[in-house]
């Protein structure tokens, strides 16, 4: 089995078989990262470009490591030092990069739909590394991989996603992926940060965090994205932390085996306490798994199959 598209633009529309294919392939590549020599020749001779229009630490580094561990030539382009500052358009930048015979372009952009726009105009594979408020598919895939790794299965799990749902591309991708895989999803946050009609995506909506985390298998905390918000969405950070921050007392309402997740970067003491982040969470496991997932995605989009991984 292979992926149906040359691109990975979002989780919405992916089948459970495609998601399982990526997760199963990532399991093989996670073993590669545990070796002394963390390299396989799967993408030897291929060129991968990281084109990031937004700041990133984990995602960009993870994609760079993934490409290099697959033996690809990886080039990072920082838009602050590129021709973008001279007025070059996104399409012109991407077409010039493709003219240098690259095989894969990984795009992070503040505008929703930017990766899809490029995918329709380029022959190279395009991977969405986060676009506006839309999606962040590889983050959702690594989250699902981590849940399956820790709990054994996604089907039947109950996951509470808590925080700034309205501005979170991570939340959207996870909702699409988790519901496709048979998990039950609850979303929780202040009413001003819950999009209208989100229940039509198959989720339960909660405004009381204590009730939202009651008995759940996974608590997924989201960063308060102040840089994407307009004024007036919340009275203040301190009040937000009081009602929607995760501490040990609140976590005790979840199932005993519950795991705590966060896509990062964390605002310690706001959405999550240091006690929970450092002692209970699987945040660093998510980071580790991100490299394996991105290796799997790049490998499969380049024409590889699970049997070859």
Topology:
Layout: H1 16-33, E1 47-52, H2 58-69, E2 73-78, H3 90-99, E3 104-109, H4 114-119, E4 125-131, H5 137-151, E5 158-162, H6 169-180, E6 184-188, E7 204-206, H7 209-212, E8 218-221, H8 237-244, H9 248-251, E9 259-261, H10 274-279, H11 283-301
Parallel strand pairs: 1-2, 1-3, 3-4, 5-6, 5-8, 6-7, 8-9
Textual characterization of the structure:
- The protein has about 300 residues and is α/β, with parallel strands linked by helices.
- The protein is built from eleven helices and nine strands.
- The protein has helices at about 15-35, 60-70, 90-100, 115-120, 135-150, 170-180, 210, 235-245, 250, 275-280, 285-300, and strands at about 45-50, 75-80, 105-110, 125-130, 160, 185-190, 205, 220, 260.
- The chain has a five-stranded parallel sheet. A four-stranded parallel sheet has the order 2-1-3-4, sandwiched between helices.
- Strand 3 (about 105-110), helix 4 and strand 4 form a beta-alpha-beta unit.
- Helix 1 (about 15-35) packs across helix 5 (about 135-150), helix 2 packs across helix 11 (about 285-300) and helix 5 (about 135-150) crosses helix 6.
- It is globular and about 55 Å long.
Mean pLDDT: 94
What order do the strands of the largest sheet run in, or round the barrel if closed? 7-6-5-8-9
The Rg value, from CA coordinates, equals: 19 Å
User: What is the approximate shape?
Assistant: globular
Major β-sheet, in short?
5 strands, parallel
Helicity, in percent? 25-40%
Assembly state of the chains shown? single chain
What is the H-and-E element order?
Answer: HEHEHEHEHEHEEHEHHEHH
Strand composition percent: 5-15%
| Record field, number of beta strands | 9
Summing up helix and strand content along with how strands pair, one would put the structural category as alpha/beta
Tell me the span between the first and last alpha carbons. 13 Å
Which runs of at least 5 residues are low in confidence (pLDDT < 50)?
A: none
Distinct helical segment count: 11
């Amino acid at each position: 089995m292979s992926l149906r598209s040359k691109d990975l633009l979002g989780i919405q529309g992916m089948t459970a078989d495609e998601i399982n294919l990526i997760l199963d392939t990532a399991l093989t590549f996670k073993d590669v990262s545990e070796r002394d020599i963390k390299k396989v020749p799967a993408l030897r001779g291929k060129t991968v470009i990281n084109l990031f229009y937004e700041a990133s630490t984990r995602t960009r580094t993870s994609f760079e490591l993934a490409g290099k561990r697959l033996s690809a030539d990886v080039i990072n382009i920082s838009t602050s030092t590129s021709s973008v500052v001279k007025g070059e358009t996104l399409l012109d930048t991407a077409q010039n990069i493709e003219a240098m015979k690259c095989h894969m372009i990984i795009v992070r952009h503040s505008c929703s739909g930017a990766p899809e726009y490029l995918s329709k105009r380029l022959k190279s594979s395009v991977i969405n590394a986060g676009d506006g408020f839309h999606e962040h598919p590889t983050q959702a895939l690594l989250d699902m991989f981590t849940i399956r790794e820790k709990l054994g299965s996604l089907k039947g799990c109950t996951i509470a996603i808590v925080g700034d749902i309205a501005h979170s591309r991570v939340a959207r991708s996870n909702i699409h992926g988790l519901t496709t895989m048979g998990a039950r999803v609850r979303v929780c946050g202040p009413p001003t940060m819950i999009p209208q009609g989100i229940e039509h995506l198959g989720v339960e909506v909660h405004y009381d965090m204590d009730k939202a985390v009651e008995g759940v298998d996974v608590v997924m905390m989201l960063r308060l994205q102040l840089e994407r918000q307009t004024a007036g969405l919340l009275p203040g950070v301190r009040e937000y932390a009081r009602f929607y921050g995760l501490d040990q007392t609140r976590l005790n309402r979840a199932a005993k085996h519950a795991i705590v997740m966060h896509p990062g970067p964390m605002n310690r003491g706001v959405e999550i306490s240091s006690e929970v982040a450092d002692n209970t969470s699987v945040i660093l496991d998510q980071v580790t798994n991100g490299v394996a997932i991105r290796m799997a995605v790049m490998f499969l989009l380049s024409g590889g199959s699970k049997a070859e991984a």
